[in-house]
Design goal:
By secondary structure, the protein is an alpha/beta fold. It is built from three helices and seven strands, in the order βαββαβαβββ. The radius of gyration is 16 Å and the shape is globular. The mean pLDDT is 94.
Length: 131
């Protein structure tokens, strides 16, 4: 069998803060998960997004350390319209999340913005300009 991408995992310092951020992006995560060391949420297409606390990861990989500098990966969320990119970006930054790149019309034909989640991961918001 060919391996299949099934999970995208994030290591978080504060589970409740991270889950609150992703709930604002529309993920259905029960509030009871805020105190858990490991959480999974289904995504469209059968993928899952999973969160683990630093302590959980270090329980099986004691030498794990967080990356420094800019990350080489990120998540991207498709919005329903170009104006929705602006709305979601404003809602997240108004809630105190760091806006890295405010919405703009990208040369590749999308409305695009980048906000950081509570652990500094870049989360892109986008929608084709023609929609």
């Amino acid at each position: 069998m060919t391996p299949q991408l099934a999970v995208i995992g994030l290591v978080v310092d504060d589970m409740a803060k991270s889950l609150a951020f992703y709930r604002r992006l529309g993920l259905d995560i029960p509030s009871s998960a805020d105190a858990e060391p490991h959480v999974a949420a289904p995504l469209p297409g059968g993928l899952q997004l999973m969160w683990d606390t630093v302590a959980t990861v270090r329980s099986f990989d004691p030498s794990w350390t967080p990356p420094t500098g800019s990350s080489r990966s990120g998540l991207a969320f498709l919005c329903s319209s170009p104006s929705d990119v602006d709305r979601v970006y404003a809602a997240l930054t108004s809630a105190g999340h760091h806006g890295h790149l405010p919405p703009w019309d990208a040369f590749w034909g999308q409305r695009y913005a980048v906000v950081h989640d509570p652990d500094g991961n870049g989360v892109d918001l986008f929608c084709p300009l023609g929609e």
